[in-house]
């Protein structure tokens, strides 16, 4: 036992750091090897099948910028568009985040801070979740994090390499996500203010030039941006719910894969988040009194909360909430840095180990729950059932928003109709699902259906009988499905003339 203790003591922090990087990358990769989809992912998969020009046009009617979809298009052309390839593509930026702790944070802020940054990038509960999402979040967090790092480096070393990386990461941020746009705007403004105060003429010229170039690069997107604002304001978007929404915003980093229709599953991560915030405030006060250099920490915190404040202001002006917990993931790199910076200054190892242990336990628990749901056999049953029974020429109709979209994107060769009785105005955006896909707000499309119709219906609020009543169709079969992946419950009805 004593020999084991001695061996453990002899391991350097650098060696521990390398171990965390290796284990961390494996950890976030564990959940990537499944072929399930939920609505947002099905949209990404569908849009990636279109040309770059079509992505620009169709994506302009969505609610996000299109850089990620262009990137996914490249993955599609390189790999044939397998779901596993898309997921591994999403893991790459999180793996880079983990490595950044060693290559950048360690160099700029010390070995301990770098180690903690890598640890949190790997084991913070939400990291493993968004590492495998076929969405833009993982790439957006990397872009914003690199932007912030190189903004800091530009305050220390004004060279061409730093400016190029700063400019490219800023442009990537604004074209990956609108929270990235807000973060990039604030970082650019704050860096400009810093350079003006320090009277660094060369830097001022550079950042103004970069600002102009970024604005010009964004001009072509402004028409689409206006369209998207209109879509979000139309009323079908994500709403605000009290107390659930504030709790999600507060605890999103620690909540991870929490599945709950109310707020009960958020109580523990919310309490832990409040405790962590209280700890950070106390330590900040302590280090301020000790006259420690906290500039980089303060600016990361300012940008983080300024983005949230900007989202609140926009929500108030638009009268539609754009405050949603998963959007905060885009700026979580700033949160990770802030926690890493404060813990990196802590001399009490017990405190550091205690905090990191709690986070690791939460992270491992969340990953186990997530993987259990991701790899559950129930997820494959509906698609397997349809693959075995859908014939060429059959029509697919759905009214269930979530389950139907997943079916639609995987049967793009068949004629697919989405019966959108509430008329959300998504006809153009949903062209992403394929050339044979149409959104219908009235029932007359039934006249154009084939003799066999597969209807993906809401299990709790069935509308199949209502839609097909008097249209000459008979119900041949009806089967209920419930998936663990994103908790979809729907029925598949076969109707035949």
Structure description:
By secondary structure, the chain is α/β, with parallel strands linked by helices. The protein has 2 domains: 11-35 and 82-374, no CATH class; 378-496, Rossmann fold (3-Layer(aba) Sandwich), CATH 3.40.50. It contains 21 helices and 6 strands. The chain starts with a helix and ends with a strand. A 6-stranded mixed sheet has the order 3-2-1-4-6-5, with helices on one face. The longest helix is centred in the first third of the chain and has 27 residues, at 83-109. Helices cover 63% and strands 7% of the residues.
Number of strands: 6
Structural class: alpha/beta
> Percent of residues in beta strands?
5-15%
Helix content: 55-70%
Low-confidence sequence ranges: none
Average predicted local confidence, pLDDT: 93
What is the number of helices?
21
Instruction: Give the overall form.
Output: globular
Strand order of the largest sheet: 3-2-1-4-6-5
Distance between the termini: 76 Å
- Main sheet makeup: 6 strands, mixed
SSE pattern: HHHHHHHHHHHHHHHHHHHEHEEEHEE
Number of domains: 2
Backbone CA Rg: 25 Å
Please render the helix and strand layout as text:
Layout: H1 2-10, H2 13-29, H3 39-48, H4 52-59, H5 67-79, H6 83-109, H7 111-123, H8 125-131, H9 137-156, H10 160-176, H11 178-197, H12 201-218, H13 222-233, H14 244-255, H15 267-289, H16 295-318, H17 332-345, H18 349-374, H19 381-389, E1 395-398, H20 401-410, E2 415-419, E3 437-440, E4 452-458, H21 464-468, E5 474-482, E6 489-496
Parallel strand pairs: 1-2, 1-4, 2-3
Antiparallel strand pairs: 4-6, 5-6
Helix pairs in contact: 2-6, 2-7, 3-5, 3-20, 6-7, 6-8, 6-9, 7-8, 7-17, 7-18, 8-18, 9-10, 9-11, 10-11, 10-12, 11-12, 11-16, 14-15, 16-17
């Amino acid at each position: 036992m004593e020999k084991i203790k001695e061996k453990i003591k002899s391991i350097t922090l650098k060696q521990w750091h390398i171990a965390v990087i290796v284990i961390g990358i494996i950890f976030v990769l564990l959940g990537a090897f499944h072929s399930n989809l939920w609505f947002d992912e099905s949209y990404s998969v569908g849009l990636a099948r279109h040309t770059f020009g079509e992505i620009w046009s169709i994506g302009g009617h969505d609610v996000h910028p299109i850089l990620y979809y262009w990137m996914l298009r490249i993955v599609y052309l390189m790999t044939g568009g397998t779901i596993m390839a898309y997921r591994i593509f999403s893991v790459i930026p999180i793996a880079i985040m983990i490595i950044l702790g060693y290559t950048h944070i360690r160099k700029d802020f010390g070995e301990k801070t770098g180690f903690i940054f890598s640890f949190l990038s790997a084991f913070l509960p939400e990291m493993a979740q968004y590492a495998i999402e076929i969405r833009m979040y993982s790439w957006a967090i990397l872009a914003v994090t690199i932007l912030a790092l190189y903004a800091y480096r530009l305050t220390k070393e004004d060279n061409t390499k730093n400016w190029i990386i700063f400019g490219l990461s800023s442009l990537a941020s604004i074209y990956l996500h609108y929270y990235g746009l807000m973060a990039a705007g604030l970082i650019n403004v704050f860096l400009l203010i810093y350079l003006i105060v320090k009277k660094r003429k060369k830097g001022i010229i550079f950042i103004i030039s970069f600002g102009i170039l970024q604005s010009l690069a964004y001009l072509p997107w402004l028409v689409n941006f206006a369209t998207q604002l209109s879509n979000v304001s139309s009323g079908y978007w994500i709403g605000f719910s009290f107390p659930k929404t504030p709790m999600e915003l507060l605890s999103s980093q620690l909540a991870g894969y929490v599945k709950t229709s109310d707020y009960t599953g958020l109580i523990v991560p919310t309490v832990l988040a409040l405790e962590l915030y209280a700890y950070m405030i106390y330590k900040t006060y302590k280090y301020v009194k000790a006259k420690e250099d906290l500039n980089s920490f303060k600016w990361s915190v300012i940008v983080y909360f300024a983005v949230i404040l900007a989202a609140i202001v926009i929500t108030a002006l638009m009268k539609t909430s754009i405050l949603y917990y998963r959007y905060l993931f885009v700026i979580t790199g700033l949160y990770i840095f802030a926690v890493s910076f404060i813990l990196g200054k802590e001399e009490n190892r017990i405190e550091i180990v205690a905090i990191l242990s709690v986070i690791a336990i939460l992270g491992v628990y969340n990953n186990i729950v997530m993987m259990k749901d991701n790899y559950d056999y129930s997820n494959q049953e509906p698609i397997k059932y349809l693959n075995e029974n859908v014939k060429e020429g059959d029509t697919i109709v759905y009214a269930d928003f979530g389950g139907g979209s997943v079916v639609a994107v995987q049967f793009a060769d068949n004629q697919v109709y989405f019966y959108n009785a509430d008329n959300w105005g998504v006809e153009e955006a949903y062209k992403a699902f394929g050339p044979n896909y149409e959104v219908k707000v009235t029932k007359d499309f039934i006249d154009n259906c084939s003799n066999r119709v597969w209807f993906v219906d809401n299990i709790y609020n069935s509308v199949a009988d209502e839609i097909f009543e008097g249209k000459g169709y008979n119900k041949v079969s009806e089967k209920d499905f419930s998936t663990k992946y994103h908790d979809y419950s729907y029925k598949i009805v076969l109707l035949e003339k």
